[in-house]
Amino acid sequence: MTVTYTARVANARFGGFSQLLLLWRGSIYKLLWRELLCFLGLYMALSAAYRFVLAEEQKRYFEKLVIYCDQYASLIPVSFVLGFYVTLVVHRWWNQYLCMPLPDALMCVVAGTVHGRDDRGRLYRRTLMRYAGLSAVLILRSVSTAVFKRFPTIDHVVEAGFMTREERKKFENLNSSYNKYWVPCVWFSNLAAQARREGRIRDNSALKLLLEELNVFRGKCGMLFHYDWISIPLVYTQVVTIAVYSYFLACLIGRQFLDPAQGYKDHTLDLCIPIFTLLQFFFYAGWLKVAEQLINPFGEDDDDFETNFLIDRNFQVSMLAVDEMYDDLAMLEKDLYWDAAEARAPYTAATAFLLQQPSFQGSTFDIALAKEDMQFQRLDGVEGPLGEAHGDFLQRLLPAGAGTTGGLLGRRLSLLRRKNSCVSEASTAPSCACAGALDGAAQDCGCGDPLLDQESELPACPEPPAPTLGSAADAFTTVSIPGPRAPAPPWLPSPIGEEEESLA
To answer: Phi/psi zone of residue 381: left (φ > 0), alpha (ψ -120 to 50 degrees), beta?
Structure first.
């Protein structure tokens, strides 16, 4: 069963992980204690032989061997090789969990698209989800030893209720030498098509959504099969294992304590137990054991996936969703905050301090600037308000010589300036009061196309005349009223407010 300690480390505090060091189940001590005792026993046996068994000449030769092994053991890149390997294994381990086939999305689609409160509709929904659960059981018993021990044969799958005897005959009569976990997914597709023909699925869009969720479910089952089939290359695992074992085999000899009287460098202290060598073995060998446990999470280790638990959970939840909960709605009623302008859920006494904390507005919200630093600056360096030199800014954008009288762009800019000077505060909607007058009046005003008379000076725009009854200008000062809205197609929902307009 998976070891969960999340609640123990919910809050970071002094020595937060220290309480986890005494746990035995799922711990590194449980994985490594045999290898650690074996390494320590071999080390102590060599140390005893050096101290009490070897002759003086043999001791000198053993001491040279110790110095040699200690000097060249560091050439083995154990940390580099082991670090990359464990990173690869952990990434693969989590991706395998993400590929576990969970029916939650599929059962919601089935409950929302396959209709009918009668026994026929109920049979459709339950059978569809049973086919999905059967596909998950077939793939999990192919990759997980725990599930295979629970369902060692197809007869056990039939007796468990995932498959009927008639379905078993069809399953076994299908001639294929490959894994047939995908067969229930095909049955699911055929049954969904039949439900569409009977009208249980009301349109093709609902059928499409149902089959898309089925394909996602089937894709996860297929990925589990491929993860079980395609392992991490064996050469990588062998390289890492050989690197770790050879390094500590060299440490068995190279980390021996020598006689201080011989005057060897770095051998001035004689101890019986190599404390730091044991710690190094604990870290590196423990790292290798972590990879050994996670490389196949479908076994029966402490931290392997709970596949049998997932089968039970998925089967029960899916049947409840499509049967007991189908079309089962609570009475609609106003919520607690129906009339509240600003809805906010209450806080308990333990969390009331959160009300005093302001909401996050952005990382620059609290930056303070001096008043003079908040003034906009003119790019041209001219004193005065920012909006006065708009024409000068346009003039600088033109190429050299464009502002002369011989250039077309310069005349356009000059006329534009003079025309803009006609705009008064009273004429905000039209650019000139003559815009709503007759064509003849507009020509008399002189506010026509400036390119027709580029050399002439434009007169000042006169004030708009007061409208009189029966004048010709009234015929042109009309407001366009949109016509009646065309009816929407029957398959589209009516726009908001269309019913009110029709009633009016």
So the answer is: left
